[in-house]
Design a protein that fits this description.
single chain, 165 residues, mainly beta, three-stranded antiparallel sheet, 1 helix
Length: 165
């Protein structure tokens, strides 16, 4: 309440309360870099695609995507996760309300991966609004946090030749 200096009456001033709903989501997919490759084996390349979405009603800054330590089962090295584009043209690290950004990484399959039969891993997206940090583990949809698994081809590779002398 405040008092009007002219009339001496109380004036009720409206109060506006803003509730910020800070939320980020990460969806991760994997596919052979060569779309015609129906049997991924040692030496073939996989491309991981990470789509980070700002489900908040505010702008998120400091947005990063990182692989979760010890979640990668591959025996080789995953490339750096790199920013590709955003749906509203924001620069890397910034997501406007409702905006999504795409990041990618690649991996060369090893013989040990083929022996295991699959490669699994999970990533995490993080962003901030003011002093609030939000994060999400990757999943196959916005609503889950299921690690990404790609099954590899396992072809038989033993041959026995018998000769009679």
């Amino acid at each position: 309440k405040a008092t009007d200096d002219v009339t001496g009456c109380y004036v009720i001033e409206p109060v506006v309360v803003t509730i910020n709903n800070c939320k980020i989501a990460l969806v991760k997919t994997v596919a052979p870099t060569d779309p015609s490759d129906e049997c991924v084996e040692a030496g073939d390349e996989l491309t991981y695609t990470f789509v980070v979405s700002n489900l908040s009603n505010v702008t998120l800054t400091g947005v990063t995507v990182t692989d979760i330590a010890n979640s990668f089962t591959g025996t080789g090295s995953l490339s750096a996760i790199t920013f590709q584009s955003s749906s509203m043209s924001s620069s890397v690290g910034t997501l406007l309300s409702g905006e999504s950004a795409t990041y990618t990484a690649t991996y060369i399959v090893t013989p040990e991966d083929v022996e295991a039969g699959f490669v699994t891993n999970q990533a995490e997206a993080e962003g901030t609004f003011g002093q609030t940090t939000v994060d999400d583990k990757s999943g196959s949809t916005i609503d889950n946090d299921i690690p990404t698994t790609y099954e590899l081809c396992q072809t038989e590779s033993i041959a026995i030749t018998k000769t009679v002398a």
